[in-house]
Structure formats: structure tokens, C-alpha cells
Amino acid sequence: MAAIESLLSESAGAKKRRVRMVISILIGVLLLHVAAGVIAGIFIVAKYIFPPPANFVVKKDIRLPAKKREHKMNMAAADAIAPKPALNDKMQSTRPTAFSLPDVPDMPLDQMLPLDPSQLMSDQMTSLSTSDALGTSSGAGSAGSGGFGGKGIGFLGVESNGDRILFIFDASQTVPIAAARAGIPFEKIQEEMRNLIKKMHISARFGISFHNEFVSGNFKPELAPNSNSNRKAADSWVSYMFSRGKGVSGAPPGGLEGAFTLSQKLKPDVVFIISDGDYKSDFGKCKKIAAEIKDENGKLSQINIILFAPKGYRLEAIKDVAKGNNINVVVK
Fold first, then answer.
1. Mean pLDDT, rounded, for 48-59
2. What residues contact residue 165 under an 8 Å CB cut-off, 6+ apart?
3. How far is 234 from 228, CA to CA, in rounded Å?
4. CA-CA distance, 222 to 208, in Å (whole number)?
5. Residues 93-109: what's their mean pLDDT?
6. Domain boundaries in the chain?
7. Which CATH architecture has domain 134-331?
8. pLDDT-based confidence at 270, cuts 50/70/90?
9. 282-313 burial by CB neighbour count: b if 16+ within 10 A, else e?
């Protein structure tokens, strides 16, 4: 009560001084907060304007090496397949039981019997005899399927084995006429070649060439993979070449000698040469080149020369080239 009375009894000047002091304190506190806020804002803005330098810290990462982890997993798998401990104590009872074991089911005993060696030998002998039967004249039978390692292929009735096939067409104007007289138009030849390439597996390769005594042209400079795009491109190219009836500038020409030289370069398993036999080549040189036509494994390539109505003296010359070489001459 005394304090209240003293406040009430203060003079007007003392009250003014007290009010000014309170206001000064409030203003000071407010300015202090404003200054603290400004300083804090400066620090926050400074963090974005002047970011602290990056500090790279390398922490030790302890990991189990892959080999040890794999070894432990293998050991755990080995432990898992270990046989469980068997119970040696047998339960015995002289009393009858209320259940019985089921009957043993019927099992196919023929699948459990050992193989008969005689059957295996007969199958092997049958396969060998079949592969020998696919051989052609002039030593082709000795090559067989073991010589070429591919599935049997047939072209215009000529059977061979191989994965790398080369077709060489004589583009002379007389060949379509001779083929038509033999009852085999060029459309059928093209269809048989198309079907043969389709039947070959995807890892096989093929090549197509047109030639005559003066010019020649190849589908690809090397044997092409047996892909869908290559088959379509080859079909269009062959149709164009058959329609023109002549070759285009490309590989070196030279009749039968040029065909053998191309075969020697591309190293095919099987070569099909389609012609009427009217070659003006050096047959002695052709015979030497034919002895050097080999596949990628260094074995003699199987050369099939299919002739349409050849002249007698040309046929004898070509047969002489085939003697002693892996060449099969077929006359249509």
C-alpha cells in the first residue's frame, strides 16, 4: 500500500521521467531484436552467396570380398545337401498294425535297363553309310558329312554337304536357251536357289556370282551371312541379273578359270557352277586352280558343274579338268 501511495503522490515531472524510461527500454529492446534479425539474415544470405568449400571425407567401407562370400555360399549349399543323420534304432512291434503299405506302382522298366551296345553300333554304321552315299564322283564320297560338317543340301538334283555355299552362273546368252531346252527355265533355277538358302541355318554363308568370258559381277565381295536382309537383297539382285541376262563389271572375268579363281578366293564348302559348258578358257590352267580350291579348314571344296546341253568336245575337256579333283560334272 505504501508503494502505491508513493506512486500516486509522485509529481508530474517524475511520472514523465518514468514513462520516458519505459519507452526508451522498449525502443532499445526493439532495436536489439531488429539488429539481431538483420545479422541473422546476413548470415543466411551469405550461406547461399558464399557456400562453404566442399569437404570430401573418405569413410572406411568394410565389405566381404566376393570370392570369400561366394565360397561361404558354396559351403552353405554343400552343408544343405549333406545327408541327414539316419536313425539306427528300428521300431519293432509284435502287435498287428491298423494300416498297410501301398502297392508298388508300375514303372517303365525299359527306361531303366542298360543300353544295348549293338544298337549303338548299328546306328553309327547307318549314319556313316548314309553320309558316304551322299558323296559324288571324283572323290566327293570320301569327304562325306565329315568333310564339310553341314546338313545335306540339294540343288537341281545335286546333293552336297556344307555351310558355305557359292553359286556361279554363266551369264552367256546361250545358257538360258540351253536350260529351256533341258526343261529347266531360269525361273526354276532361281526358285531352287532361293529355297536352298532359306533352308540353310542362320550361321551359314552364301555367295552368288554372274560371269561370262568378258564381264562378271558378284552379289557381295565375300560370302554373306544368311540373314533375312541378305536373302531379300540377294533375291532382288538375282532377279535383276536374270532379267538382264548378262553380267556387270565387278570381279575379274575369265570363264571357267574366273569361276575357279573366285572359288579359290572365297573358300566355300560347296560350289555350284551353272553353265552350258561353252568355255574358251585354258583348261590346263583350270585343272591346276581346281586342285587349290579349299574350304576354311584346308579341305578340298566340293565343286558341282551343272551343264545344260554341252557340246561334246567341251564336255570332254571339262571332264578332264574334273579328273583327280573334287569335281562333280552333271549334264542336264
1. 77
2. 153, 196, 197, 200, 204, 205, 206, 207, 268, 269, 270, 271, 272
3. 10
4. 10
5. 61
6. 11-48, 134-331
7. 3-Layer(aba) Sandwich (3.40)
8. very high
9. ebeebbebbeebbbeeeebbbbbbbbbbbeee
Any alpha helices (H) in the chain, and if so which ranges? 2-8, 12-49, 66-80, 117-133, 140-148, 174-181, 186-199, 228-244, 255-266, 283-290, 312-322
Once rounded to an integer, what is the mean pLDDT over residues 267-289? 85
d(CA 167, CA 273): 6
pTM here is 0.53
270-275 and 164-170 beta bridge pairing: parallel
Nearest Cα residue to 304 out of 191, 171, 111, 162? 162
pLDDT tens digits for 6-23? 656 667 777 788 888 889
Cα distance between the two ends of the chain: 145
Q: Which residue has the cell 571324283?
A: 138
Q: Residues with Cβ < 8 Å from 201, sequence gap 6 or more?
A: 151, 163, 226
* Cell numbers found for residue 301: 571344296
pLDDT bin (cut points 50, 70, 90) of residue 97 is low
Do residues 332 and 307 make contact, with C-beta atoms less than 8 angstroms apart?
yes
What does pLDDT average to over the chain? 75
Distance of CA 224 to the CA centre of its chain: 14
Cell numbers 519505459 correspond to: 22
Question: Residue 59 and residue 226: Cα distance in Å, rounded?
Answer: 56
**CB of 316 within 8 A of CB of 327?**
no
Reported as a single tens digit per residue, the pLDDT across 110-165 is 545 555 555 445 445 544 443 333 333 333 333 333 333 345 678 888 888 888 99
Structure confidence at residue 31 (pLDDT): 92
Phi-psi region of 158 (alpha: psi -120 to 50; beta: other; left: phi over 0): beta
* Sign for the pseudo-dihedral over CA of 257, 153, 202, 243: positive
Contact 310, 303 (CB under 8 A): no
